Automatic annotation (TrEMBL):
The lineage of its organism: Bacteria, Bacillati, Actinomycetota, Actinomycetes, Streptosporangiales. Keywords: FAD, Flavoprotein, Oxidoreductase. Its cofactor is FAD. It comes from the Bacteria. This is LLM class flavin-dependent oxidoreductase. Belongs to the oxygen-dependent FAD-linked oxidoreductase family. Residues 348-520 form the FAD-binding PCMH-type domain.
Length: 757
């Protein structure tokens, strides 16, 4: 049987002894330390001498950070598939995508029956396992409509709610030996996991043939089923005594034919001996990988991911899928993959990209960028995908998704230096920095990606106390259009550093930033609801109160038209950036005078608690018509104009986000974001169908608008750019664009034309 071309994986098969519970956990930790890929555990729930395997896996997952965990294999008759689906998805989410699901049809029926489980015949147990797999798959498929429905002979669910979706595409592998189980493996499973001792190597070709034929009958490529093997009875010895009884080089010689002739690619060591586990990871695994790589290169073995016929048909023209760089293949997602729906959309923008690449290093970003530019399709880059204007997905093109580049590091607590991956969400940043008493000023939603704000500005709840996000940044790592990985700082590529802070989407792919965080612990969050029926007077009062507030206070206001005969209502989030509650009360009391208060609350809270997490997948809610402008003040004329806009129904959502304070301490020419004297950032949203009406009303603000903030505007073109980058700033940006991106590769997010074009 030929080599199926899967990358090699190595793991351990650990006995979950209840007599020494810490030993089983320690062996799981040793599995990771030895450089292996997964720790698996026997599952015999009827054995009182064993720990419960599910509890043990959870414990080991919490004590490790890289390896996957799996049952070897879980006893389905005693673990109902509906609950198992929820448990598996939960553990996968909690571990960051490090769970794999090994299932067995059942054995030792006396023990199963003694615990209240069903006593099944071999045929019934296979049928029950098939039904269970259907339930689990449907429960994980949160994109399908309706509830889970399986009307089986052994398992029935009727309308079970789907979800949660796992963090990654959990593989289901089956312990199988007999023809019925092998056929089920080929038809529905992702892996086949027999054990030496129960499987004779001479029987492997026949078993593989049954799996392959069943896969083809189900419309699957046989390579979609990974061949795995439990290595029982082996010993690493100084001299050879037989099969898998000898030194590491003999193990390599014994295992190599299993890869090349029988297609096995995952080897799981059945041993509880620490020394054997260490040697297996340090000596056998790397040597076997090297030997297999050499043989595959010589034979020209296909090693790309296998896909079903339906998935191949969903591929987009203009993309050479076979040319995806090797380092990116393992996490690449395309139409037909189970992870595709979670990655195709942005927060507002719907998309159907042909390929989503998910690098985890700057070098991989350079590879992804080089590959994408060789394709005849659009290119978009995604940090968090939360932007209102929606530039992080496309139809039929390549998306470079940075979500795996989400590390948050405290480099030096004393100087408050931190490094943030461009794919991290701000809720992750806040949570990681808070134990150190630190924070970086960010937006008002935790689901926003670092890369988006760090290249645009960063107007957030700490703005007046600590400035914009870009004001904290001291260095950036950027991959440019020609594939170079550059450091941009005040003393290194300073022109690029200047441009990236405000117009960064035009110059390269930001992969990480270094910043100086602010000392922030708890803050006081006040929330107000106002009757804004007298809208103009209310807005004028709001402008005066916010202008007089101390710089520790940053206030955001949202106003919406009246509904159902009631007048407009306004809601405010006001943050006092400190834990001095007496000072906070004094600073917040004036906000009670802005208008009739319908509701109010105030609480002392950790900074991370005030950022909505929003880390789930985006669903493409629909790109609105959004307009943005900066105001130096909320004058009487401006207040009347805004009140008229709200009353007319031209906007369904209006927001004033306060700036000033520390934001305006920075010189206007210090960054590409040049707006350092304004007091408010204004945004108004409408349905695209009523965009013309919004524009008519927006034009009435021409005398008051003094610049704009790109993140809240869906327009493009010269008029928008001249507002965003006034006078000398735009000219300078065009010159820098000509230097770093002369061919305008990065033209999706408020594009700036290179000088000379």
């Amino acid at each position: 049987m030929p080599d199926y071309g899967h990358p090699l994986r190595f793991g351990t098969f650990i006995t979950p002894s209840a007599g020494d519970p810490e030993r089983a956990v320690a062996l799981g930790e040793l599995t990771e330390a030895a450089g292996l890929d997964l720790a698996t555990f026997q599952d015999h729930p009827y054995n009182p001498g064993f720990l419960d395997t599910w509890t043990l896996m959870t414990w080991v997952a919490a004590r490790t950070g890289r390896i996957s965990v799996s049952g070897n294999v879980l006893n389905l008759p005693l673990r109902g598939p509906a609950m198992l689906a929820r448990q598996a998805a939960s553990l996968d989410l909690l571990s960051g995508g490090r769970f794999e699901l090994g299932l067995g049809a059942g054995a030792f029926w006396d023990g199963i029956a003694a615990m209240g489980g069903p006593r099944l015949t071999p045929g019934q147990s296979v049928a029950a396992l098939s039904e269970g797999i259907d339930i689990i798959r449907q429960a994980w498929d949160t994109d399908a409509r309706g509830g889970v429905r399986v009307d089986g002979e052994h398992h029935r669910v009727s309308g079970m709610k789907r979800g949660p979706a796992p963090a990654h595409d959990i593989g289901i592998h089956l312990g199988a030996y007999k023809p019925r189980m092998l056929r089920l493996t080929g038809a529905k499973a992702d892996g086949w996991l027999p054990s030496l001792g129960y499987l004779e190597i001479a029987d492997a070709p026949g078993a593989n043939r049954i799996i392959d034929e069943a896969a083809q009958e189900a419309g699957r490529d046989p390579r979609m089923v990974r061949r795995m093997l439990n290595l029982s009875g082996g010993a690493l010895l100084p001299t050879g005594r037989g099969f898998l009884q000898g030194p590491a080089d003999q193990w390599v010689d014994d295992l190599l034919p299993l890869v090349l002739e029988h297609g096995f690619s995952t080897f799981i060591l059945g041993s509880d001996d620490p020394r054997t586990i260490q040697e297996f990871g340090a000596e056998v695994a790397p040597a076997l990988r090297e030997a297999v790589e050499k043989e595959r290169a010589s034979a020209g073995t296909a090693t790309g991911p296998a896909r079903a016929a339906a998935a191949l048909a969903a591929r987009c023209p203009g993309i050479d899928y076979d040319a995806v760089p090797e380092d990116l293949r393992g996490h690449a997602v395309e139409p037909g993959d189970r992870a595709y729906t979670r990655l195709r959309h942005g927060y507002m923008q719907s998309g159907r990209p042909g390929l989503v690449l998910r690098p985890e290093s700057a070098d991989q970003v350079a590879e992804a960028l080089g590959y994408a530019l060789d394709q005849d399709v659009p290119l978009n880059v995604r940090s968090g995908g939360h932007g209102i204007s929606g530039r992080s997905t496309n139809d039929g093109g390549v998306v470079v998704d940075l979500s795996r580049m989400n590390r948050v590091e405290v480099l030096d607590p004393d100087t408050r230096r931190v490094r943030l991956g461009a794919g991290a969400r701000w809720s992750e940043v806040a949570a990681a920095l808070h134990p150190h008493g630190l924070a970086v000023s960010s937006g008002d939603h935790g689901g926003v990606g670092v890369g988006g704000i760090a290249t645009t500005g960063g107007i957030g709840y700490l703005g007046r106390a600590h400035g914009l996000t870009i004001d904290h940044i001291t260095a950036m790592e950027v991959v440019t259009a020609d594939g170079r990985v550059l450091r941009a700082a005040a003393d290194e590529n300073p022109d690029l550093f200047w441009a990236m802070r405000g117009a960064g989407a035009n110059f390269g792919v930001l992969t990480s930033v270094e910043a100086v965080a602010a000392p922030v612990g708890d803050v006081v969050l006040a929330q107000f609801a106002y009757d804004a029926s007298r809208t103009a007077g209310f807005l004028r009062a709001w402008g005066e109160i916010t202008a007089a507030a101390p710089r520790e206070v940053t206030a955001f206001l949202i106003a919406a038209p009246g509904r159902g005969g009631s007048g407009p209502v306004a809601r405010a989030m006001v943050v006092h950036a400190g834990d001095d509650t007496d000072a906070a009360v004094a600073a917040l009391e004036p906000f009670l005078k802005a208008g009739p208060v319908l509701d109010q609350s105030a609480q002392l809270a950790p900074y991370p608690a005030i950022l909505p997490r929003g880390e789930g997948p985006h669903t493409g809610a629909g790109v609105p018509a959004s307009r943005s402008g900066l105001l130096s003040e909320v004058s009487e004329d401006t207040a009347r104009t805004l009140a008229g806009m709200l009353a007319s129904g031209a906007t369904y959502f209006m927001q004033l986000r306060q700036v000033g304070g520390a934001v305006n301490d920075v010189p206007a020419d210090a960054t590409a974001y040049a707006h350092r004297h304004q007091a408010q950032s204004l945004a108004a949203l409408a349905s695209p169908r009523t965009a013309a009406r919004l524009d008519e009303r927006w034009a009435e603000l021409d005398g008051a608008i003094d610049g704009m903030y790109l993140s809240f505007d869906t327009r493009t073109g010269p008029g928008v750019l001249s507002l965003a980058f006034p006078g000398p700033a735009l000219s300078r940006l065009r010159g820098i664009k000509a230097q770093y991106d002369p061919h305008n590769v990065f033209d999706q997010n408020f594009p700036i034309e290179p000088a000379g074009d």
